[in-house]
Amino acid sequence: MSMSRDQADQRQIPQPIRPDGAGGIDTGPRDIWRDLENPDQLVPPVTDNGLLPNMVFSFSDTHMKLNFGGWSREVTTRELPIAKDLAGVNMYLKPGGVRELHWHQQAEWAFMISGSARITAIDAEGRNYIADVGQGDLWYFPPGLPHSIQGLEHGAEFLLVFDDGNFSDLNTLSISDWMAHTPRSVLAANFGVAEEAFCHLPKDQVYIYQASVPGSLESQRIESPYGSVPLPFSHRLMAQKPLVSSGGTVRIADSTNFQISKKIAAALVEIKPGAMRELHWHPNADEWQYYLSGTGRMTVFGGNGAARTYNVRAGDVGYVPFAFGHYIQNIGNDSIWFLEMFRSDRFADVSLNQWMALTPKAIVESNLCAGNELMDALNPVKQPVVKFPRKDKAD
Ligand code: MN
Ligand code: MN
Fold first, then answer.
1. Which DSSP string corresponds to 120-161?
2. CA of 163 to the centre of ligand 1 (A)
3. How confident is the model over 255-268, as a mean pLDDT?
4. I need a labelling partner for 150 at 20 to 30 A (CA). Which of 21, 39, 76, 244 fits?
């Protein structure tokens, strides 16, 4: 039987119809690209139920702030109202581009996506920190401490995470802003110089600006009379030996191994094709996710029958409220790499599989009417990322 070209094209267009016939054709208007990106929103699993709010937001749907020196965009409670614990900024600095000297009330945690950057900071005791960071490195600036970021030879793209969902990186305390709004006579008195010394001050907050690529770290080193900060403000996450699971890897950075990071804990997770981040929840905090690569689906379970499935892909922010059950399944052909962040000093999760394995058999069996196959599969050793039988490889 042959098919006309129109019929063949029709086949490529996803429709909100389940195999059992529920639903119906969508004649439009519609955004087919988005429907193709969100197969589990267009045709939700039959297990989805209830009224859970949106928990995914793409950085591609945010406002881009373009500056000479780079760009930034952010996902805060304005974009994703449920994400009250943390806010995130995706920023790029050109070679030499500077995120100006500034500070804020919130802790700042960062993951270097690509390139390299130089970070500077001091603490209240006058101890300084000047370091270069590259792909896969983290940094952390405690709340209230001043800092700067500058792109090196190849520029730098990174993710910033703050421990307050309402935080905006466009609303920080900046050195240029402060000096622009302080009487010149006061500035002159403060530094013991003539007022003319400030005649070239920027008139407003600078935020991001273009400068030249700095010299070597050694050439820029400033020795503080009080020494360097006792706990490093950066951390080589990719240099950490990963926890290897049957379907991927996990690298955890929290205050136990990245000691300065007292307000934000994180895990970098790799989910290989044909694998999933197992069913689990977090007993201490909401989860703010950032997807670096791949395509997947996540169902969030909120109790009382409420469950909703979301599709996730590179550039998305996902969010899971404290204690809500969830999994992330790789539905693509490439590995998913994503970050899990928590407003906490430590990473913690509870595994459904491990919980069942460590509970008396009789109660699990009777509670779930479980047979031997399931009972024998339970594993007392946590496997954060597990392989699953893939549909396309089934016999
Ligand atoms: Mn900052
Ligand atoms: Mn999780």
1. EEE-TTS-EEEEEEETTEEEEE-TT--EEEEEEEEEEEEEEE
2. 12
3. 98
4. 76
